[in-house]
Amino acid sequence: MKWKVWQGLFHVFILFDMPEADLAIKEIGDFFKG
User: Which domain of life is it from (predicted)?
Assistant: First the structure.
């Protein structure tokens, strides 16, 4: 597991349609897949 800090983004950026959110969601999925 690793800690990732997304610089320059607001707290709930993952809820919005933006490229950074797509990448973050993919990384979350990869984490749970193991």
Answer: Bacteria
